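Late entry, written up from scratch paper. The run itself happened at the end of the previous shift, but nothing got recorded in the book at the time, so transcribing now.
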Amino acid sequence: MENQKLTIADYIAIMNDCIQAWNRADPEAVASFYTDDLDYRDPSVPAGIASKEEFIKYLKVMFHVWPHQEWVPGEFFPHNKDGSLSGCYRFKIANQNTEISGHGIDIIEFKGNKISRNYVYLNADKWNKWLKSEISGGRG
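Output as recorded:
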């Protein structure tokens, strides 16, 4: 599949497989869907992550803190640029003490059959409170 032109259905199938790896909280499996020179950004890393090695480190920490991952894909919207789309989803991440749920949309670009850019935009019910608590060492 890497050397032939992919269709939007191919990209969506790859995204659905990637989401399943997120749901298993498996950092290496998630990272396997990304290029080595990825550009990943989410509310926790707004400046971005630019290497697969750093991405795996980030995912290991995130999945340790949030071992329960539940991401449910919604609609995908292809862009004019080949290999570029946006995807909507619902999510819930949790640990023994806290649960955060909400919805989001990602802007995703592919190089071949790998994700090269993933910008994550979340609307989470407790995100800001959780971030303040984490920054203050649980005192917030």
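The chain has one domain: 8-135.
(Scratch paper discarded after transcription.)
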